[in-house]
Amino acid sequence: MSLELKPKKWAGAIRAVTLGSGSRKPVTVGGGNGLPLHTFEGVFPHRPAFALEITDVDPARWAEAARGPWDGVLGSPAAAARRALREFGADLVMLHLCGTHPDRGNRTPEEAAADVRAVLDAVDVPLIVKGPGAGPRQNDVLARVAEEAKGEGLALHSACQEDYKTLAAVAVAYGHILVAESPIDMNIAKQLNILLADASVDMNRTLIDPLTGGLGYGLEYTYSVMERIRLAALGGDAMLNAPMICLAGEEAWKAKEAKASSRQEPRWGDERRRGIHWELATALALIEAGAEVLVLRHPETLARLRTQLDCWFGDPAPGGDSCR
Amino acid sequence: MPLTGLQIFKLLPNTNCRKCGYPTCLAFAMKLAAGRESLEKCPDASPEARAALGAASAPPIRGVTIGRGERAVTVGEETVFFRHEKTFVRRPGLFRILDPRGLSAAECGALLNDWLGVSIARAGETFRVDGVAIVEAPGAPEAASAAARRGFPVAVLAATPEGAASIAEPIKDQRPLIVPPAGAAPAAYFALAARLGVPLVVAGADLAGLASAAAAASSAGVGDILLEPPGADLRSLHHSLSAIRRGALDRVHPGLGHPVFLRAGRGEFEKAVLGITKFASVLAIEDHGGETWLPLWTLRQNIYTDPQKPLQMEPGVYPLGEPDSRSPLLMTTNFSLTYFIVSTEVEASGVAAHLAVVDAEGLSVLTAWSAGKLSGDRVAKSLRQTGAVDRVSHRTLIIPGYASPISGELEDAMGDGWRVIVGPQEASDIAPFFRDVWEPMRAR
Ligand code: B12
Ligand code: SF4
Hints:
CATH topology of the largest domain in chain B: TIM Barrel
Distance between the termini of chain A: 27 Å
CATH superfamily of chain A: Dihydropteroate synthase-like
CATH architecture of the largest domain in chain B: Alpha-Beta Barrel
Largest sheet of chain A: 8 strands, parallel
Number of domains of chain A: 1
Mean pLDDT of chain A: 94
Strand content of chain A: 5-15%
Structural class of chain B: alpha/beta
CATH class of chain A: Alpha Beta
Bound molecules: cobalamin, iron/sulfur cluster
Oligomer: heterodimer
Number of strands of chain A: 10
Shape of chain B: flat
Number of strands of chain B: 17
Strand content of chain B: 15-25%
Low-confidence stretches of chain A: none
Distance between the termini of chain B: 74 Å
């Protein structure tokens, strides 16, 4: 007997958002009209994109295993960006301006702008720029960066419900993408997008950061909130249908289980591979839940995800949906 | 397919006698269809009505138990596609593959003892090796018996029906799961599983083949069935896993209403991740290292908790080590993850301490604070109620760094000469905090 399951059709689709303009080679994400990865019943014009995280100053708190591949370029963003692209095959780069935080180096907006300029000169892929975190410094830094990179279509990370006006204005004025961050909450995600739309931000130029909890530390919440955001988008909600970005690397490598040495925890196995697995499991689960821009730390995580998704979004082998 | 209200109504007596508590049979039928009432309330319902409703209300995915006793693994009985609809209930069993080739019986035994000793406590759960999947090879029957004797549920990764019989038969009372090799002719395995009364994995080249194989196994007398989904890569596997779950929930074919079995070979970590998130019920995993298992256990813990309801600790005072009245008194919230992290760090510091867990509705420190569940009054009240204040003589309370905004109001609310000290933000800094702040303070 034949067994045909009716493909699920949805009223809505995810917006396609293009990162990078001006001198950047653009990267488009989103545009799909089915549940995440449901390539057997939906149409997905773009596959998820992978960014690697680089920093303006040496990120002392990064786990040894995550620092290893970046040996010699930590805190040298231009060199790190080149390595991210040429050696590690990233689609995008996320420059985390952690050194602009008052307690972590207190670098000035001018210095931040110079770092961004250096990275723009070093590579031609789109850039995500993450500020030091919510607070007045975030706005000063990102506003100056936005001006410096006018017309380059940066993704500015990030605006939140309590503080979005400055970044909304500079994103519009200088032609950038705005990442709207909400703390694992679908209603806040929607509310923030409504506020941004009211502030004249083009909804085709925003991304949702649903705030990722890493594996073992909030993934249980994030995963379902993202699924629900996706379902709302596919149901036609125009304020929740932006592609989602997840800082999977940052969250995964925070976990003690990703960092602890094998000496401390002999039962936990090889520490280098454990960290990569922690990041891989976090990122893959988030992709299943709907993430379309993944920011990672370890190039091996990226390579392994790339292998899987190239297959996933590649052409099916004749006579089946297997891609090998 | 669940019955509609009207379909149920046609099965009822239609006397509107009100014995069920509803004014009409139709009203009662509507409640039944919505799953809000039980047919028991209608004393006059016919046996046919009971049978029809019973079939429609049977779980869409059957439950299967592998093994016996304390370690037995029961899977299936899931009712939803998305976990926010109604939590996934039956955590998948993670089986470790044991290939006896090249191992002596003693070596097998030592390995099994080692696996038996695995017990990792994390956020309210104990991670263990749930079962052992034995590869058919010389020495396999002995290894299987050794595993069963230790209480492990056993899966038999068969190569031949005869081999499977020689491994499974001696331990048939322990309900081993028989897993035929890929592409095997099924009939002999059906007969074996039916004869031994043990669960069996069936496979198919596509979804239709899989469903009819399951139906055929049923008719051949196999009572408990698991499905091995077709798929050589993650994409096709994801397709079959999703289709099986959807087909089972929509009751498109009875052959799809069984739990799913998956093998993850060497290095196939991604496949195991997909299996855990997407509905696999038993996974046989070839890699043995903690770097593979710890993330998979944790992922399973995340996916199989209720996203609405955080895992909570009972509020109270927990002794860490053997504290006395001069030991430090720390405060944290009753989110089990928070407790787990803080208690682990305190224990690692080697300093005995009292850890007071206050009721913050199961929220983490920052979340609780921003949700207003961590006010000075509330914390002070909880510390009094749980008797935390009586455990120490020094009247000093250490609070999490992220709770610093409440330190003043908490000190006021505690009164009685209590002092509130703001500890570090991250639990990993507790050991240096004890050394650099607590000890000198106590010495004074
Ligand atoms: C998961 C999560 C949730 C989950 C809840 C999980 C839970 N059970 O608590 C959900 C989705 C429900 C949630 C809801 C909200 N959340 Co929330 N949430 C998070 C998230 C991602 C992780 C929290 C977590 O689990 N941390 C892990 C635990 C272990 O941390 P912890 O309890 O703080 O413990 C650590 C330390 O405090 C320390 N420690 C603990 N105890 C002790 C004791 C002593 C003595 C010492 C020394 C140290 C110590 O050790 C631990 C490890 O270092 C954080 C962001 C983040 N990445 O941190 C936001 C976050 C905490 N949430 C936030 C907010 C605003 C909210 C909401 C108010 C908003 C909303 N989304 O609706 C609601 C409030 C909930 C409610 N009931 O109303 C904000 C808080 C902002 C602020 N600075 O105040 C955060 C920081 C996100 C953000 N950046 O905006 N949240
Ligand atoms: S008890 Fe049965 S027959 Fe009587 S009204 Fe209720 S459903 Fe109808």
